[in-house]
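Deliverable D5.2: sample structural annotation.
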Amino acid sequence: MAKSVQAMTCQQAVRTLLPCNPFLTGQAPNLTVPCCIAVTKVNAEATTTQAHRDLCECLK
């Protein structure tokens, strides 16, 4: 069963952040607008301290 990060599951958070993959893996030198939008969306879903902790664990 997928662990939920607020209203978003861990799998949904990871999928949402896929536009950041080139930057995170060193294939792109800078963040892109789609990556920033994705981070904003995931951050908006995690509105509590516990949700941020859950998201951090998910992304590890």
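Annotation notes: Helices lie at 10-16, 21-24, 33-45, 49-59. The radius of gyration is 12 Å.
The annotation will be released with the project's public dataset once the embargo ends.
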